[in-house]
Amino acid sequence: MSHRKFEAPRHGNLGFLPKKRTKHHSGRVRSFPKDDDQSAAPHLTAFRGYKAGMTHVVRGVERPGALMHKREVVDAVTVVETPPMVVVGVVGYVETPRGLRSLTTVFAEHLSDEFKRRCYRNWYKSKRKAYTKYAKKYSEDGGKDIEHELERMAKYCSVVRVIAHTQVKKVGLRVKKAHIMEIQVNGGGDVKAKIDFAKSLFEKEVTVDSVFAKDENIDVLGVSRGHGYEGVTTRWGVTRLPRKTHRGLRKVACIGSWHPARVSSTVPRAGQNGYFHRTEINKKVYRIG
User: Fold this and answer.
1) Which phi and psi angles does 116 have, rounded to 5°?
2) pTM of the entire predicted model
3) What is the CA radius of gyration of the chain?
4) Section 54-78 average pLDDT
5) Which end of the chain is more exposed for a tag (fewer CB within 10 A), N or C?
6) Cβ-based neighbour number of residue 225 at 10 Å
């Protein structure tokens, strides 16, 4: 007998299949906020941080009619360390029938060693020549090549994103390579305004309070804690069988009918649990700084 939607709903959500370890070992923005307010000033739409720990806050509830109205509740909060990011480049995307396609990329003239370390597997054995030839474009012909690429971007592109990296040395971890990500620029009357805004940030620090504000609701992306290979009871939350069950009780009693003669993908099975990429929406920023 199959599950019944209300009396005995199925265990586990099939929307998260396949449950496998993520390839992206830190949060990856799958979709940036919609760029629909052209009257707003150009601004960045994402930021990268490092989880420092958790604590709790006591807050008053103002919700007339609710049971907890005018009472205090305790909320769990996560502390995220967000050292300033440095903008090192800008990318322009054109819209195609198959989605966005990057047209061109322009990098800043001076790039930090943190950023360059990410270009090498072995920094101390390398010649550390990354972007040395590229930097000469700024001095040759008065930077004509750079200006040409920015003009191409303004002419053809519809989406502009900056390339920014974290200053991981300020976090106090053992990591020396910067974490690099693209951040979409929203707002501004046209693409030219976005590119000018992005170019004005080259080699400058961007703080988290210039991107997010107190009491704002934001989405948080990251990778969940890994638990390795686990059984069906922990991984899917299926019911334990009676105590006297032969050959174990933390199992699925029936894994399907005789025919079709294979196990369906909707049947809970043991396997990897945790270390999944997840997005949590509508997290409130209680405090910055």
Assistant:
1) -65, -30
2) 0.91
3) 25
4) 96
5) N
6) 9
Q: Which region holds residue 275: left if phi is over 0, alpha if psi is between -120 and 50, else beta?
A: left
CA distances from 125 to 99, 169, 273 (A): 40, 21, 38
- Are 26 and 179 spatial neighbours (Cβ–Cβ below 8 Å)? yes
Is 59 a residue whose pLDDT tops 90? Answer: yes
Residue 1 has pLDDT above 80, yes or no: no
The answer to whether the beta carbons of residues 94 and 152 sit under 8 Å apart is: no
**Tokens encoding 191:** 């693409």
Return d(Cα 213, Cα 60) in angstroms, integer. Answer: 20
Question: Which residue bears the tokens 């205090």?
Answer: 72
How high is the pLDDT of residue 14? 95
Per residue, the 3-state secondary structure of the chain, as one string, reads CCCECCCECCCCCHHHCCCCCCCCCCCCCCCCCCCCCCCCCCEECCCCCEEEEEEEEEEECCCCCCCCCCCEEEEEEEEEECCCEEEEEEEEEEEECCEEEEEEEEECCCCCHHHHHCCCCCCCCCCCCCCHHHHHHHCHHHCHHHHHHHHHHHHHCCEEEEEEECCHHHCCCCCCCCCEEEEEEECCCCHHHHHHHHHHCECCEECHHHCCCCCCEEEEEEECCCCCEECHHHHHCCCCCCCCCCCCCCCCCCCCCCCCCCCCCCCCCCEECCCCEEEEEEEECCCCC
State the amino acid at position 178 in one-letter form. Answer: A
List CB contacts of 76: < 8 A, sequence separation 6 or more: 54, 55, 56
pLDDT band for position 142 (cuts 50, 70, 90): confident
